[in-house]
Structures are given as C-alpha cells and as structure tokens.
Design goal:
Shape: elongated
Largest sheet: 11 strands, mixed
Number of helices: 23
Strand order of the largest sheet: 1-3-2-4-6-5-10-11-9-7-8
Helix content: 40-55%
Low-confidence stretches: 21-29, 289-294, 555-585
Number of strands: 11
Length: 619
Amino acid sequence: MASSGAAANLWVLLGLGIAGVVLAARRLRRPARPDLGAFIARLELLPPPQPPPPQAPHPLTGLCFAIADALHVSGYITSFGSLEWTKTHDAETQTAPVVSALVNGGAICVGKTVIDEMAYSIHGENKHFDTPTNPAAPDRVPGGCSSGSAVAVAGGMVDFALGIDSIGGVRIPGAYCGVLAFRPSHAVSSGGVIPVAPSLDTIGWFARDPSVLRRVGHLILRLPYMDSRPPRQFYIADDCFELSKIPTRRLTQVVIKSVEKLFGRQVTRVNLENYLASKMPSLRNYSNGHKNGDSKFPSLLALCNAMRSLHKREFKDRHMEWVNSVKPAVDARIVSNLSEDGDLDMDGCQDARNEARKALDQLLKDDGILVIPTTLGCPPKLNAKELSSESYNSQTLCLSSLASMSGCCQVSIPLGTHDKCPISVSFIARHGGDRFLLDTIQTMYATIQEQVEILAKSNVSSKQAMNEEAAEAAKEKGNAAFKEKQWQKAVNFYTEAIKLNGKVATYYSNRAAAFLELTNYRQAEADCTSAIDLDPKIVKAYLRRGTAREMLGYFKEAVEGLALYPSLCLIKEFMSFSFLPNELILIHGLFADFNHALVLEPMNKTAGVAINRLKKLFP
C-alpha cells in the first residue's frame, strides 16, 4: 500500500510538472489573435459622397485608418489605455476634429487601438488590454505609447493610423514595428484628445507607404501641394549613432549611398553633443537632474532631463487628482514615477525648448536633414530587464527629446532587419519643415529600400566593413586636425584612411588640401589625380589640382617656352599635327582643371577667378 501511495504521489507530481511546462509554453508562445490585439473597439465612420465631376474625388478615397484610444469618437468612451478610466468617464458627445477631417477627406475609420496606460510609457505594454503583438517580432514589445496603431499598420489591417506623441509615442513604436512614423512640427488640433503633457503633445501618424504618409500629412496639416525642393545637406550625428546597439555602418551606409545616388552629394558628419553644448547654455541646469548624470553625452542627457521633467509636471497637473482617487488600479510603475518629487524650473524648461529650436533651425536651415537613430536598436524582448532600466530608458529618450523639445518634425524610416528584428533611422527637419520632410521621404524611400536590399545581399566581409568604418573615423580625425591647422597631423590621418580603404576619392582630395598647406604641391597634384580617377565629378579635386599646378610654376614654364614663338597664333599651326609643344600642354592642363570645375558647378567662384587670372596671362 505504501508503495502504491508513493507511486500515486509521483504521478501527481509528474502531472503537475507537465501542466506547468504546458502553461509556460503557452505564455511564451502567446496565442495568435485575429487583430494581433491592436484594437480596443471596432467601428465604422464613413466618408461623405464623392463630389460630382469635374470636381476631384476626396484626397484619401480608398484608404482606411485607425486611431489611438486617446482620441474621441462620439458615442464611445475613450479608455486612455485604462479600464478604470472607462469606469469613471462617460461616452463622448463629439468626435475629434482631426478624425472628422480625415473621414471628410475620404478615408474610413475602422477602429480604436490600444495605447499604454494613460499614454505614459514608451514600451507598448498594457495590463488592462494586454500588449499588442508586434507583427515584425512577436517575442518583442511593439513600443509605445501608440502601440496598437503601429501594430495595425504593420499587420496590414489599415493603410494608416493616428497616434499620440509626447516623448516618442509614435516614433518609437514605428521603429519597433518596422513602419514609417511621422511626428509633425505643426500643432495639430488638440480638440477631442485627452492631453498627456500639452506642451509636448502632438498627433502623429503611421503608414507603410510614403505616398500615404504624405497624403495624410497634407490633409492633417493643410499643406499646399507645390514643387518639391531637394535637400542640400544631410548631417549624420555620429555621436548619436554611438548610442545605438546596431553597427553604425549598417544604419548610416544606406543613407550615405542613397544621398550619393539621388543627389550626387556627400553627407556631413557632426558631433551633435558639442554643437548643442555651444548653443544651449540653459542645459547646464539639467546636467544632474536625473540619474546617469555622468553620461559621456551631458548636453543630450540634459535636454532629455528637461523633457522628462516637463512631461511629468504637465501630466501630474492634468491627471494626478484622478490617479490618487483610483491609485490601486493604476500601474505601480506610473505611481512610483509620479511620486518622485523634484524641483522643476518651468522657465528653465522653456528656455531649453527655445534654445533647442533655435540651435537646430540654425543647423538645418530650410533644406537640411539631420540623421539620427530612432531608438537604441532592436525592440526589447517581452518582460526584458531593459524595460525597467533607467539607463536604457534615458538613452532612448535622449534620441526622441531632440524633436520633442525643439518642435522639429521627425520621420522614422524602416531599414530592414538586424538579428531578425526591425531597425530604423530618423530624418529631422527644422520646425515648420513638414512639407519638405514629407516630400524628401517620398523622393528617397524607394532608393533607401533598394540600398537596404543591396546591403543585405552584399558579401562584404566583416573585416572589410570594419576597415571602411575605421577609414571614415580616420578621415573625421583628419578633418578635425585640418580645422585646427595641424596640417601634418591631418596628412597622417588621411593616409591612414587611404590605407584602410583606398577607393574613396574624398580621402585623396582632403589629403591634397593638407599637402597644399604644407607647400608639397607635387604630392597634392598626385593625390588630386587619384581622386579624379576614382570620381570624375569631385569638384574640389579639380580646384586643388589646378592650384597645385599653378604653384608648381606650370604657367611660368609655359610663358617662357612660348617666348620662342613670335605669336600665340602659331598655336593654330600645330592643330593639324599629332603633337603639341610641351608648353601648350601645360597651358591646356591649367585651364582644363578649372574648366572642369565650372562645368560641374557653374557658379563656383574659385574656378571663375582662376580662369580669369589665367586669361590675363594668356590673352
């Protein structure tokens, strides 16, 4: 009997163990949901009838969309990501103006989507309605606060969707789910929307197709359709890419190649940390306002601290009374964060915002684009430690604080996958540059995706990739030395770059500039020739080679040699022969370099002045 009892107990324990394994597997597997858990409510708001011909149809005809459940729809209770909120609020009597505008523009609204509780987090988790499943990486968070909208677009359930963006609520889930996500600089009507932090809030939107992103933007922001202008300058913020967990080359190379192919330009690399430090004195007040004050990026962190302080204060002003009334039902992490008191200088926050806008507007002007990573890298796994890591959250918000605090517009652009997870970069344009940014994405998106495919299929060895990245770093060090007038040091760095990757014309052209300063004209001429062989359109190399040849005394030799001839008219006599005197070849070489530069850049003043100078010598 004892043995049979022990056997029975063994079978019970074994059964419990199997049941535990099954339950754990189910939790890890996350059962499939028809709409990936993106929707809180399904509905249908239909557009008005089409106008009769010859009037144009509604601009968004044929599109359907969803809205984050912080926007009101008449007859529905807005949940604000909380079941407790629905219990304490009534159904709305009016629809948000931005939703009505889209419906009147021809689009069909099909539902309301999940957001983080009270739109407060950036990860996409929600204990009330469950976390929507990220279609691009089901075992990872979708990002927040507008998680459901991003999932609905990424899953192909709608053509576009609206979200709320205060501190990254549209851009972060767009990056994590692998779709386009736009935060505008223009204030979208806040009517019919539950505020989070009013001075930071705006309505953003997601789309898979850049033309849809642009059409929605033109309607929401009431932008005119005009001829687009190409961007003249792309600034890659190298220090921001140091924050990224993705190899820098994997993110930046696609942008560099796309810019070269479409516009024939090279990108400019900037250190945004140093730039902000020089332009924003108010940031010193926030250097140690939060943890991680010893960051190697004190200005970026300070801007982030100011944003987080402003976000918390404005949220508390709007919602703390309600939170206290239902406290046990609110996520403990939200309550804990709100309970952390600290002195907040509202005037200082506004100073930081004004300085941020002025600084970025000065950098970007009307036709510049700043390139940064949207997030730190791949989306964190569900229930991962990063989600509660102060360091991880702070660094992520450093990136989103640039647009949130400056009021610049920003678009997150998917760049394929890394380790089977979506990755992205962001383009930022100045405050008020929304149409310019939307047009730029429309122009560049296909080429960017083409370059993503090329990079994914390339068989470039990891060693070669590392060499190319190291060469770029050496070039930047050379540029810095050149600016400091340390000519030999600059030559050494450019030489290092050439050794690592000898196929980049810029490295030779830049070294030639340093050799000119060192009066080593023969080497400067040789370097320019190498640069031109690699890239026949590199204007600076023609100008520098022309200068080197002048300084080598080509014109002097030519003048002395031609004194042997009674008149330059004798040149015509040689045209019928298969040779020319060396003197005439020298003259031709001098003119040719500057002429080439003028052909490539007709308004180039340096080339024009040089040609006029030579014409006086050889009338």
